[in-house]
Amino acid sequence: MSELFDKYRVSFSKGELIFPEGDLGNEMFIIQAGKVRIFKNIDGFDQTLTVLEKGDFFGEMSILEGMPRSASAEAEEDCDLIKINSANFVAMIKSNIEIAIRIMRKLSLRLREANVQIEKLMHASTEMLSFTEAPAKPKLKKEVGDVKAYLVSTMSGKTFPITKGESYVGRVDRVTGAVPEIDLTDEDPKRFISRRHAKIMKSDDDFLLVEEIGTVNGTFLNNQRLATGTPVQLKNGDTLTFANITLTFYHTGTE
C-alpha cells in the first residue's frame, strides 16, 4: 500500500476487539501485518466465519452501504491495519486497483449467492402450487472434462490438472472465499501471486493464456512478459511464470 496511507495505520493487540457486530462504523480496514478473526454470535455462541491475513480487507460494506456491521472483528494476533473512511476511500481505490477489483468481485459473489437463494425460494413455491412438474431440460455444460492438459511446478513437482474450459490461476481469496481452479497458494508462501492472476482457456484444440486485470507482479511465457488481457497460445513444454512461481505446461494432444 502506498505511503500515502501511512498516517491511517492503526495497531491492535491479540484478542482486542476491532469492531462489534451491529456497530455503525463508517470505516473499512486493510491488513498490513498479522491476522484478524471475523466472527458472528449465533444462538449465544461466537462462531468464527473466517480468519483474514495480510493483504485482505474487511468492513467495506459500512462505507458502501452505511449499514450496521453484520459480524464482529478481533485481532487473532498482534496486527497492523490501514483504517479507511469514506473521505479517503476514493484515494485508496485510485492507488490500488487490485483492491477495487476484489471489492467488485466480492459484491458479485454476494449477488450470485442471493440469486441462488431466490431461485431456491421460487422453486419451492412452484412445488407447493403444483403436484406435477415437467422434467427439467438438461443444462448445457460449461465445463470441459478430461482435457488432458496440466501444469507441473518446477519448485515442488506438484501437478495441477486443467479440466475446465476456463481455469483461473492464483491463490485462495479469504475475503470472497473464491478458490481458483489452479490454486498456487501452497507454492507461494510469501503471497507474491495475485488472487486471480491469470486464466487458461481451451479454444477448440488450442489452449490460451491471458493475464487478468489487476495482476500486480506479472505473467511470463517462456520468460517474455505478457500484456494484460491479451491471450497467447500455449504449446507443449512452455514455461509459465506467475509472479515468482514457475510451472511447465503439458498437453498430450499436442505434437
Largest sheet, spatial ordering of strands: 10-9-19-18-15-16
CATH class of the largest domain: Mainly Beta
The major sheet is characterized as: 6 strands, antiparallel
Question: What is the tally of helical segments?
Answer: 3
CATH topology of the largest domain: Tumour Suppressor Smad4
Give the radius of gyration.
22 Å
Q: End-to-end distance, in Å?
A: 45 Å
Low confidence ranges: 131-144
Q: What structural keywords apply?
A:
Jelly Rolls, 255 residues, 2 domains, alpha+beta, Tumour Suppressor Smad4
Structure notes:
By secondary structure, the protein is an alpha+beta fold. The chain folds into two domains: 93 residues, Jelly Rolls (Sandwich), CATH 2.60.120; 103 residues, Tumour Suppressor Smad4, CATH 2.60.200.20. Helix content is 18%, strand content 36%. The chain contains three helices and 19 strands. It has a six-stranded antiparallel β-sheet with strand order 10-9-19-18-15-16, with no helix packed on it. Helix 2 packs across helix 3. It is globular. About 5% of the residues have low confidence.
